[in-house]
Structures are given as structure tokens and as C-alpha cells.
Amino acid sequence: MKQAYFLTGTDTGVGKTLIATGLLHAARSSWDMRVLGMKPVVAGSPGDLEKLIAASNVEAPRNYINPYYLEEPVSPNIAAKGVGQTIDIDHIKYCFDEVRGLADFVIVEGIGGFRAPLNETQDISHLAKLLALPVILVVGLKLGCLSQTLLAIESIKARGLQLAGWVANQVDPDMICVAENVGTLKERVSEPLLGFIRYRENAKGEDLIKHLAMPE
Length: 216
Ligand SMILES: Nc1ncnc2c1ncn2[C@@H]1O[C@H](COP(=O)(O)OP(=O)(O)O)[C@@H](O)[C@H]1O
Ligand SMILES: [Mg+2]
Hints:
By secondary structure, this protein is α/β, with parallel strands linked by helices. It has one domain: 3-Layer(aba) Sandwich (Rossmann fold), CATH 3.40.50.300. Helices cover 37% and strands 21% of the residues. The strands form two sheets. Strands 2-5-1-6-7-8 form a six-stranded parallel β-sheet, sandwiched between helices. It has a two-stranded parallel ribbon with strand order 3-4. Strand 7 (163-170), helix 8 (178-188) and strand 8 (193-197) form a beta-alpha-beta unit. Helix 1 (16-30) packs parallel to helix 2 (46-55), helix 5 (89-99) packs across helix 6 (124-131) and helix 7 runs parallel beside helix 8 (178-188). The radius of gyration is 16 Å and the shape is globular.
């Protein structure tokens, strides 16, 4: 069975790349699958692409898994405009369609949060809708994450997309009442919690295999 997911987060820097690489490693270790990570838009974080490539076990042309590579660490619409480019989500869909058949399990990592602007009129939610993939939401556990999570889920559903599951990831080592926050979300979110990752120094995707459940 071929599976593909769109992975988004409650914000930037919440662990999307960490969890994406964790899920890729989990799929290739438990199911012996061909797995591929895609990062359609990079803006100022070249490490994301390298980590996804390292976690994948099939090769795909770099300009297909990453059609837009922007140097500046700012919102993609602004970064693209600054270099005279426009992000075209139809082109991203074309690239995704070209590479998805190479693997049994594909994770497409978004950029920023679910409404991060990509061009003058469209944002990540439009891309997720165009790709028509079930969504995995990475919740960055820190103060304020409860409202951000519920807003993101509302937005995912408003686009008519399925929430395949969510991952609670503690990005703030000093956060208090971490388990209580996850418990509060469990009471309000009916979709599966695929993993609860505590803060860990030098977190790496391959170390999360036992802590992540595969989405249905
Ligand atoms: N559970 C965690 N424990 C420790 N550090 C983490 C954890 N999750 C993420 N990080 C760190 O936080 C930073 C942002 O994570 P990253 O996966 O790049 O986020 P995103 O892709 O959402 O921007 C990275 O330096 C990453 O190693
Ligand atoms: Mg990332």
C-alpha cells in the first residue's frame, strides 16, 4: 500500500523536520518500505533538506523534492519576492506527482505553520489541499501551544482535509505541566496521537523509531 502525508506544525521550529525524519526511519525499519521525504519550499534552513534526504532510502532528483530553495530565513512569499520568484503550487504538485511513485511512504514537509504564505494569495493550506494528502500535525509543546493546535486543526478541517494524526513534541526544555498539556489536547482532539516526544538533547529522527506510531 502506498502512503503519503503532508506534515505541518503549529509553528516554525516545532520539530517538523525531526518528526518527519523519525516517521521515515520508523517506516523503513518496521515495514522495510521505500521511503522518501520532500520539502517543496526551503527558506533559510538548508539542513532540513539534507536531513530528509539522509532519512530517505530512495533517491529522487533534488529539484523535484525541493523545487523552491530560498536563502533568506523569512516567510516564503517574502523570500521569493526578494529574488524575483513566485512560488507556483501547481509546479509543486507536478514535482510531487513525478516522485511519489518512487516510494511506498512519502512525507511532504510544509514550511512554518499551516497558513504560512507562499505567494500573494496562497499559503501552505492551499498546497496541502492541492496535494490532497492526509495531514500530520506536529505540536510544538511550549506555552501557548494549546490554542495554536486547536486553531491549526480547525483550519485543516476547514480545507476539507483529513487529520491523520498529531505528534506532541516538547521543544521547550523548561516547559511546566507538559503531560497535562498533552492530556488537555487528548480530551479535545479525537484523531490519533502518533507520539509524545520529550525534550532530548541532540534529538535525531532515527532515535524516535520506538516512540512513533505509523499513521493509518
Ligand atoms: N524533542 C526535541 N528535543 C530537543 N530538541 C528538539 C526537539 N524537537 C525539535 N528540536 C530541535 O528544535 C529545532 C527545530 O526543530 P525542527 O525539526 O528543525 O523544526 P521545524 O522543522 O518545525 O522548523 C532543531 O534544532 C531540533 O533539533
Ligand atoms: Mg523543518
